[in-house]
Design brief:
alpha/beta; TIM Barrel; 2 domains; two-stranded antiparallel ribbon; 11 strands
């Protein structure tokens, strides 16, 4: 069990906010298979407030996936406050992104831009905390590059603003998703602050999750790319952490079952259904199966959902 502000989670495992990945069906599967909390994709605060994004799609949540954290990215305190006004009734936790390394995001002086200018974190985060009674958290990287590691400064600012927790991706902005995550830096943050620390980076299997907890002392583990096409990873992590039980890897047929479950949930819960989105998730579900590259090549040629399902039945079983 883990607590963030006044929100109690069933365990300390979370699905990272991932743009283009965290659709309703995927979030719901991650919750069903053991994630203590799931995050929305990153939401651009200004576009939300100005109506450039369809709000019904942005806040497309169902009660079965709660608790849910909604992540906002922005640089203007007033815009962040207005965005919170739009989404707070739908969120259990509100997260502010200070770590996205995307060049377009940084070009707007948002996301990991703040890792180069940590003194500017407070104006955005303090505004967010003051705008709601919901717990507000922050997600950071450990610095701009290897020459400007400043995770402890960022973490202190986050805590001083009244954040309920901090998630630390153990890479710099320059690394993006390459190289190894610096778990030692996550441990240093844990030793520095008194709020819950959630570690993020290089958790690909249950043993990785347990190792992160052991080596960093962090309170929670956030899983991103490791969960893509593999929501069952949360169950494997939960069983190992709570019961010491190492579950076997999934068979190709079981992966097929999970993919079919995803498609069913997608059709049931997704407000706007897009076949390319289903197909992209199908590609990710191929990871770890026999002949994964061949499966992906075949699935790429599916022209509609019926053809995709037919291919899945022939390729996974």
């Amino acid at each position: 069990m883990m607590k963030i502000g006044n929100v109690t989670l069933a365990n300390n495992l979370s699905l990272a906010p991932m743009l283009g990945v965290n659709c309703t069906a995927f979030r719901l599967m991650c919750r069903n298979y053991g994630a203590g909390i799931v995050y929305s994709p990153m939401i651009h605060a200004m576009r939300l407030v100005k109506g450039e994004r369809n709000r019904d799609v942005v806040i497309d949540f169902v009660k079965e996936e709660r608790p849910i954290a909604i992540q906002l990215v922005g640089r203007q305190p007033d815009m962040i406050k207005q965005a919170i006004g739009v989404i707070e009734d739908f969120a259990d936790i509100i997260d502010i992104n200070f770590g996205c390394p995307d060049s377009d995001v940084i070009g707007e002086k948002m996301g990991a831009y703040f890792s180069k200018h940590p003194e500017q974190i407070s104006k955005v985060l303090c505004a967010a905390v003051s705008a709601t009674n919901k717990p507000v958290t922050a997600k950071i990287r450990i610095g701009w590059d290897s020459q400007s590691i400043n995770h402890l400064k960022q973490a202190k600012i986050v805590q001083d603003c009244g954040a309920a927790a901090i998630a630390v991706h153990g890479r710099t902005k320059e690394q993006k998703y390459a190289g190894k995550a610096n778990w030692a830096a996550i441990r240093q943050v844990k030793e520095k602050v008194n709020i819950p620390v959630i570690g993020n980076g290089d958790v690909w299997c249950a043993n990785d999750a347990r190792s992160m907890l052991d080596k960093t002392g962090c309170d929670g583990v956030m899983i991103g790319r490791g969960a893509m096409g593999n929501p069952y990873l949360f169950k494997q992590c939960e069983q190992l952490i709570s019961k010491g039980k190492l579950m076997p890897d999934l068979t190709t047929a079981k992966k097929g079952d999970l993919l079919m479950e995803f498609i069913e949930l997608y059709n049931e819960f997704q407000v706007i259904r897009r076949f390319p989105e289903i197909k992209q998730h199908a590609m990710w579900f191929c990871t770890g199966t026999d002949g994964a590259a061949h499966k992906r090549r075949e699935l790429m040629h599916a022209s509609d959902e019926n053809e995709l399902v037919s291919m899945i039945k022939s390729l996974f079983y």
